[in-house]
Amino acid sequence: MRTRIAGGTIVTASERFAADLYLDGPRILALGSGLDLGVDHEVDASGCYVLPGGVDPHVHLDFPTLTTVTADDSTSGTAAAALGGTTTIINFALQRRGEPLPAVLERSLALAAGQAVIDYGFHVVVTDLPESRLAELDEIVRAGATSVKMFMAYPGELMIDDGTLLTVMERIGALGGLPMVHAENGTAIDVLIRRALAAGRTSPQWHGKTRPTILEAEAVHRAIVLAELTGAPAYFVHISCDEAAREVADAKHRGLPVFAETCPHYLTLDSSVYRDDDFDVAKYVMTPPLREPRHQAALWGQIRQAGLDVISTDHCPFCLVGQKDAGIGDFSRIPNGVGGVQYRLPLLYDRGVRAGNITLERLVAITATNPAKLFGLYPAKGTLAVGSDADVVVLDPRATTTITAAASPSKVDYSIYEGWTCAGAVRDVYCRGTRVVADGQLRGSAGHGRFVERGPTTPV
Ligand code: DUC
Ligand code: ZN
Ligand code: ZN
Ligand code: ZN
């Protein structure tokens, strides 16, 4: 089937222009004006922006913690993502200690098979990998999982030591893949948590107050040193503060292949939510926590200057009732994470583009093109070009998006953005040529989405 998306403004990471976009089955056939190509279906996009489908490289679905599992599975999470203009997510496959990495990937692939509305990949979270087993990384890279995530936080649960960080970075880098790092000094944070609890500071606000910015920046610095030593690239997830972002920017200035993301919540909310002992504050228990307001301008500045490369959502939802409430009386038992996969584009269009913090082209770069390049999906995904996958978003800047948890297919029972209204609305979304969202309504169904085998990383 051939579709013409007519009369819109096409936006890529580098330019915008008025043109029609032609889709032929799962691929982009042509871009241009006045072309004489037969079509079966015409969509009027006048007054709208036509963008590449979003790539969200940091989403937790069916993701287990010590005591529970994220509220969203592959179906509910990808349905919400589609409504937000995302056509590819990269989910996490968590290694149980001792488990061979290829088995981790197979287990996650089996769980997701036939469940997703949009395309998906996996990063394997490495929690345990002695040097004698490094060859397992070669196998998962061959299977199309070309990035791995490691935690420098959560000792005894997810944290790996610096030696493992070094050897895994080195091997993944040599394979053309990308090591991802959750950078926080986990053992120092654990001391602060134990002291707070011992002093009777057990309410959720103390989550925010026991994870200081300097322990994030220290870990970023340490991981950059290890990456430099090995020659590997490094990608830092969820950078939340000025100090940590500066470490990344300094490394880039020294010519190192160091990349980083931040998330919409660090750009739109701040630590004033950690103000009293109310358990409702558990809504904002995410890691790293929200920071003081001064960090927001610093992060926007780094996004403009390419100190930060990507904005992911770190969608990691847990219900307040039945999940987060496990931490009543002990904040360290609250599962860490918040939802947000559906709202990246409206939040960044409103607070980023409309507020004058970034251009539309930069919005496309940080939500589609850059993650596609870094995670080995480009140019099939992340751009609007002849031959690329027909992953397309029609964004109507005249419409508005009102955020409410009750109206979302996500199964989480609250939103940190509840009641917010953003300028701009995702009107239509195509994933490999199939219209998965039409007029803001979900049309796609579970099983349309496919596992995408990813290639080597490309610098941005
Ligand atoms: N890190 C994440 O990336 N997501 C949720 C919690 C965490 O610590
Ligand atoms: Zn993390
Ligand atoms: Zn430093
Ligand atoms: Zn995460």
Could you characterize what this model shows?
The chain is an alpha/beta fold and 460 residues long. It has two domains: 109 residues, Urease, subunit C, domain 1; 322 residues, TIM Barrel (Alpha-Beta Barrel). The chain is 29% helix and 22% strand. It is built from twelve helices and 17 strands. The strands form two sheets. Strands 1, 2, 3, 4, 5, 14, 15, 16 and 17 form a nine-stranded mixed β-sheet that branches. Helix 3 links the parallel strand 8 and strand 9. Helix 7 packs parallel to helix 8. It is globular and about 70 Å long. The model has no long low-confidence stretch (mean pLDDT 98). The structure holds dihydropyrimidine-2,4(1H,3H)-dione and zinc ion (3 copies). The site of dihydropyrimidine-2,4(1H,3H)-dione (DUC) has 9 residues, from loops. Pfam families: Amidohydro_1 (PF01979). This is Dihydropyrimidinase. Belongs to the metallo-dependent hydrolases superfamily. Hydantoinase/dihydropyrimidinase family.
* Element string (H = helix, E = strand): EEEEEEHEHEHEHEHHHEHEHHEHHEEEE
Bound small molecules, by name, code or SMILES, are: dihydropyrimidine-2,4(1H,3H)-dione, zinc ion
| Rounded radius of gyration (Å) | 21 Å
Shape: globular
- Please report the total strand number as a whole number: 17
CATH superfamily of the largest domain: Metal-dependent hydrolases
Structural class: alpha/beta
CATH topology group of the largest domain: TIM Barrel
Q: How many separate helices? A: 12
Question: In the CATH hierarchy, what is the architecture of the largest domain at level 2?
Answer: Alpha-Beta Barrel
What number is the mean pLDDT? 98
Through-space gap between termini = 34 Å
- CATH classification class of the largest domain: Alpha Beta
Estimate percent helicity: 25-40%
What are the low-pLDDT stretches, counting only 5+ consecutive residues below 50? none
Tell me the strand percentage band: 15-25%
Kindly give the count of domains: 2
Largest sheet: 9 strands, mixed
Cofactor: Zn(2+)
InterPro entries: Amidohydro-rel, Hydantoinase/dihydroPyrase, Metal-dep_hydrolase_composite, Metal_Hydrolase, Metallo-dep_Hydrolases_sf
Modified residues (N6-carboxylysine): 149
Domain Amidohydrolase-related: 49-436
